[in-house]
Structure formats: C-alpha cells, structure tokens
Amino acid sequence: MTYEPVPLPDRVQLSPEASLRSVRAFRDHMRKRHSVRDFSDTPVTREVIEACIETAGSAPSGANQQPWHFVAISDPAMKARIRQAAEEEERAFYAGGGGDEWLAALEPVGTGPDKPHLTTAPWLIVVFAQRYGLEDGQRHKHYYVPESVGIACGMLIAAIHHAGLVTLTHTPNPMKFLNELCSRPDNEKPVMILPVGLPAEAAVVPAMAKRKKPLDEILSVF
C-alpha cells in the first residue's frame, strides 16, 4: 500500500469552556468505574458486546496493523471449561508459584484461586495479541503490539463502563490454554479475560481499590 491522504473525516472540536465541561463529566463518569468480581447472571445482549468490541477495534495501533483479536463467549459449557483451566493455574499460583512478594501485594485485593465470575458473568471477552501477522501463509512483523493492544483494552473497558456494565481484568498465568479453548492460532498470545455483565446485588469491592494516586503524584508539567 502507498500513502494516500484524505481530508480529516470527523471533527469533534469544542469551545474551551465546553471542552472543560465535557472532559470533567467524562472524568467523573470514569471515576464510577470499578473492577467487580461479584456478577449477576442477568443476560446482556450480543449487540451490546459487539458495540463495545467495535469501540476497541477503533483504537490507534502501530502502523495501523490492529494486532488484536477478541473472542466473546456466552456459551455456559465453554465458560465452565475456561474456569476449570484458569483455576488450575490459579491454584498453583496461590500455592506459592506467584512468590511471597506478589501474593502479599494481592492480600488487600482479597483474591484467591476460586473464580466464580468466569461462569456467572453472562459474557467473557478473551483478548489476544497478534505477535506477528499471517497473510497468504507469509509471516510479517507487527509493531508496538503490547502498546497497541493495551490501548485497545483501555478503550474496551471504557466502552463496557459506558454501556452501564462492569468488568474485571482477569489474567491467569500462564494463559496458553486459551489458544486451544478459543481455537486461536499460535501467532496470537492471550492477554486477559474480561468477564462482562451487571454487578450482583451484594457486590463488593476492596477498600484499597478506592485509593487512587492524587494528580500531583501522577502529573508533571513543564
């Protein structure tokens, strides 16, 4: 392909005052986002999930190669297989495989090897990063894969919250079992599982999760 410029197709420019109002409203909305482990089994339509993933697919990426693939799962039997495989890895992790320092860091989060959210949530979205591309049997390099997929995941999580749903970034280690269960090729590396749905009536979050660093700790201005 060769470079072909086209006029900027969309403009969403606002006045300075409207810009400040808009971004503050978005900030306040995103502050209501929480990582939830207690899900309701209330159904969520496929159309909502697809719209969230379409949002993620619009993310910027290195050389516009879009090195990601999303697998959306609502089938109860498949969710059960993923939970079983994930909990096997988690039991090894919490039995000492994760190391004392890592396990100590997780104590305030209240996590453990049991992952009921993987079967209770109406949807699981498994995110894969394409380490390299395949076209007509030929392998070609992808650029800035972790950065690109990370941006897409952030946009996906924001879209899920915007849809009035909750999610959780679940990362069993290792995750190679997901390639086989999701029928994905070897050039794709599983990055995370996102259970998606509504929170349970009795949902809780760890108190420490509400402690966010203040602006003066995360921002430098020159």
Automatic annotation (TrEMBL):
One GO MF term: oxidoreductase activity
Segments forming domain Nitroreductase: 31-197
Swiss-Prot/TrEMBL keywords: Flavoprotein, FMN, Oxidoreductase
Database matches in Pfam families: Nitroreductase (PF00881)
Superkingdom to which the source organism belongs: Bacteria
Coiled coil: none
Protein biosynthesis is among the record's keywords: no
Entry-linked PANTHER family: IODOTYROSINE DEIODINASE 1, NADPH NITROREDUCTASE
Name of this chain's protein: Nitroreductase family protein
Organism: Paracoccus alkanivorans
Lineage, uppermost ranks: Bacteria, Pseudomonadati, Pseudomonadota, Alphaproteobacteria, Rhodobacterales
